[in-house]
């Protein structure tokens, strides 16, 4: 029990090190970008420049600079933004994280429920017009870019039809914390949830359908039918249960990727101050500490999700349980 | 157990046909199959791969629902026609009255549930039992099937058990509702020889302890001889021969049965230098000859075997063995037919047809002009279609390829009369 | 991990470097059970068979010319009784028996002296199996081949082999001339095996089958590996592993209490 945990921990540390080193190298290997000048600001006094250079160790070799950066990020947590001087990046991410988490969790609920429903119905009616319609809808969902869909939805709900009875409930763009007003939180997020979920519903329902159709051709389904079970039971208890193994592993990775900042476009379009938007801003202003922090944050989530997916595998698939 | 009681058979299958349509072509899989199984009888259904034995079982179980598949015929089981039942009626019968076990018990169990869970599920699908009652019965069944420590085994997953134990669990599941008929599709093929012997032993005991009849599907003549009361030999989707196992093995009447038995290497007595092998391979369903399906490989082929299918046993008189082979006057002596096979061809690089090692055969072909003129060689040795032409002459269509080029085109080889070959009727 | 020695033609090949082993490999070839999986489905039979000739050189160190390759392929087709036209076709166009013929031809391309055949006929239909067994026998006679013929079907083994080694859980339990081993077996496992084979004879004497199953190779039983299933097990068998000992000329058995006739 201890060994796999330690191994997992070791992996996490290794992945974090690799990613941080890579990000660090990319920015400091970029010629012509003196970090001191960037941090100290335009026309800064030589004394300020000196102070900054000392603080960040820019006069010392690269590995030392990297170590200082990591220390400021993880231990003292006083790494400040370049672009927005004085703004500490760690608390900034901590403020953004709940927004992203709210957005992604809600979207995840929608996409899991909808895609399982669509996938199962399509697989059950394989070859019929229902199947074709659902899968076509899925394909459309995959093909619509999320920023375009978001803008169109905004256009409809915020501008043109905002005053009609249909959309008058829609609040303005932005985020309302759950602790402040659960109802406002829900109203503010319900449209971003749906927009974010659209593509995933498409992908997941198509994958689930394909999986289910393949599984329905397996020997054990034939056995289940020979046992005289009802088609619904066969599809759900034997087919879906087995297909969930792939489904869950995919879900874990996508969820983590989104929580780690992958919902960037949705956040930008709907003005949600989440991690994705933070990353977007940091990239816009080449704000190295902030980029570093968001990337590390994202990496932590992906690695964490990987571990959770593995745990879910153990739970879902007894064959994997024994392999350990 | 000898079943000479006058009671009606448990299952009476009459004229079962299974075919499927692919690209507008009807491909027959099983043709006009008739057989019956008595109470507590074990019937062996023997055939090579592609002979339609599994399809027959699936059709009886109502498990064929692929689009384009057409099942016709009649299967009377306890006064009901299995093939005419609705899905719901069939479902009530499946697992309760007719149960099935499969070749590979590894893939036949759902991998994510325990063995016990899956047996409970079948029990509870057909009987109103509480969870606990079902489990008690499951453990009991596993014990009866010779599973050691049944209570613990019930809580284990399929992959945690050995092949033999899995097959025992499979049989336990199949027998859980005391079915009258058990269909076993190659139940021992995936097992070791010593474990196979154990499972066959178990199957033989089933009918006395559970009173079930068994339809045993296998390709192994040894398994049939050891286990079955009567035997039905399938060849290419058609019944070749049926009868009591004893008679059939002692005096095989159909040339296929005889050749099949002869081609099995003996365990005792002198070792033959060469095995009497059957040349060629069973035809694909699409390439099945309209005449006797075995004719292209048969040593005794004569003209009447070819154009029309052999008379099939229209009504199966129980215990009376009827080979589905053309009526012959006595045993045909191979010398009555052409002594050897040749392909007469003007081009030297054409291949002799077919590579039949030893033995005698009966057909001589000559290439027609299209073939002789091109720089080609015969590519496919299997006849693709065989059509009757007026005047009693028939032609064979072969695939033909230009040397070097990958494309094929058909040419016809016309049968040429040889003195020894009787003219077609 | 592997230990021990494999001596081929008087030379220990277990620890030979790849460079020296490669020419030796020409003399040893394999035929597998799954006739389809062992042929690349996207290549013509002719290409498949010609490949080893293009890679390897002739015994006197020269390259094979297209002429000699073509000649060799035609020779091979004749050996395994396939039409020459088969060279132009793809694996899926053949039946199982024909594919196994092609596999045998592939094994014979470089004129090996030893052919290891791993269950070459067990995936074939009964009516086709006999053809391939005959082919193996014919080739052995005409080419003077040595076979290691791996099979579980004792009747096929009896038909084809001169000597038989019976294995149980990774070790040879009995080794000797075919007729001796199969008709006067001395090891309880061989006895059980010969009795368990279903024979196509109605009313043949039936023996009580061996109980239990082959234990997992991960935790093998102590002492004699067969003791958990042996009908004649003694206390000694549980502790002490028997070694392969000679009980008659050309007949060796690994059992403390062999059945001697």
Automatic annotation (TrEMBL), chain A:
Location of the protein in the cell: Cell membrane
Main subcellular location of this protein, as a coarse class: membrane
Protein name in UniProt: Peptide/nickel transport system permease protein
Cross-referenced PROSITE patterns: ABC_TM1 (PS50928)
InterPro entries per record: BPD_transp_1_N, MetI-like, MetI-like_sf
Membrane disposition: Multi-pass membrane protein
GO cellular component: plasma membrane
Domain ABC transmembrane type-1: 97-309
Stretches of the chain forming a coiled coil according to its record: none
Cell membrane keyword on record: yes
Sequence similarity: Belongs to the binding-protein-dependent transport system permease family.
Pfam family, one: BPD_transp_1
One Gene Ontology biological process: transmembrane transport
Species annotation: Acetobacter lovaniensis
Bilayer-spanning residue ranges: 12-30, 99-122, 134-156, 185-204, 243-270, 290-316
Automatic annotation (TrEMBL), chain B:
A Gene Ontology term for the protein's cellular component: plasma membrane
Record-linked SMART domains: AAA
Family matches, as PROSITE patterns: ABC_TRANSPORTER_2
Primary location: membrane
SUPFAM superfamilies in alphabetical order: P-loop containing nucleoside triphosphate hydrolases (SSF52540)
Subcellular location(s) of the protein: Cell inner membrane
Superkingdom: Bacteria
InterPro entries the UniProt entry points to: AAA+_ATPase, ABC_Ni/Peptide_Import, ABC_transporter-like_ATP-bd, Oligopep_ABC_C, P-loop_NTPase
Membrane topology recorded in Swiss-Prot or TrEMBL: Peripheral membrane protein
Protein name: Peptide/nickel transport system ATP-binding protein
Residue span(s) of domain ABC transporter: 11-261
Keyword Nucleotide-binding in record: yes
Keywords: ATP-binding, Cell membrane, Membrane, Nucleotide-binding, Transport
Family: Belongs to the ABC transporter superfamily.
GO terms (BP aspect): peptide transport; transmembrane transport
Cell membrane listed as a keyword: yes
NCBIfam families membership: oligo_HPY (TIGR01727)
Gene3D superfamilies to which the protein is assigned, alphabetical: P-loop containing nucleotide triphosphate hydrolases (3.40.50.300)
Database matches in Pfam families: ABC_tran (PF00005), oligo_HPY (PF08352)
GO MF annotation: an example: ATP binding
